[in-house]
Amino acid sequence: MTLTTIERHIVEEERRHGLTSGTLTNLLYDIAVAAKVISREVRRAGLTNIIGSTGDVNVQGETVQKLDIYANDLLSGYLAKSGRVCAIGSEELAKPIMVPEKQAGKYVVNLDPLDGSGNIAVNASIGTIFSILPKLGQGAATEADCLQPGRNQVAAGYVMYGSSTVFVYSTGLGVYGFTLDPTVGEFVLSHSRIRYPGHCKFYSINEGYASYWDEPTRRYIEWVKGIDPASHRPYGHRYIGAMVADFHRNMLEGGVFLYPRDNKDPQKTTGKLRLLFEANPMAFLAEQAGGAATTGTERILTITPTDLHQRVPVIVGMASEVERYENFVRQSH
Ligand code: P6P
Question: Staple partner for 117: which of 65, 201, 322, 324, CB 3.0–4.6 Å?
Answer without folding.
Answer: 65
